[in-house]
Amino acid sequence: MKKIVILIVFPVITFIFSYAFAQTAEHIHKPHPHKHKQYAKVKNPIPMSEQSIAKGRKILEKYCTECHGEASKGNEKTDLTDNLWIHGDSDGEIFHVIMDGTKGPTPMKGFKKELTKEMRWHIVSYIKSLKKTGGTGQ
Ligand code: HEC
Fold this sequence. Notes:
With about 140 residues, this protein is mainly alpha-helical. The protein contains six helices and no strands. The chain has two domains: about 1-30; about 35-130, Cytochrome c-like domain (Cytochrome Bc1 Complex, Chain D, domain 2), CATH 1.10.760.
């Protein structure tokens, strides 16, 4: 009897634990790109000019490189120059991340208080200028 319990219960418990663990691990290591449609529609009201890009660069270097690294290259989640956009690649979605931050296992705080709307849009222009391969959004 004891043997049967071990034979049945042990694999079941192992399975449950490994499943739960795999879920957690995947959650941390595999970011799932998604869109925020309601923000994607919002367009940058400030024309993407050299001036705006230069302003955005200055602001980003002051507030963001601590986590997003030199030339904005961090890991795949914080790399702002690659083509992987976890929270969407449109102007409005990037603006929204800067304003409200993100939730999740490695969240980013929002910069609603520190940065004015205008400053956030300049950053969007700068980030867009960094993209090497371009995205689906504009
Ligand atoms: C304290 C660390 C930290 C600071 C400071 C920070 N970020 Fe982030 N940022 C993160 C992390 C971590 C993520 C990934 C979060 C996630 O995927 O949920 C992220 C994600 C992002 C994303 C989304 C990238 C994507 O793939 O969709 C953008 C855009 C972004 N940050 C811009 C900025 C800007 C602009 C600033 C400065 C105003 C800034 N961040 C400052 C940590 C930071």
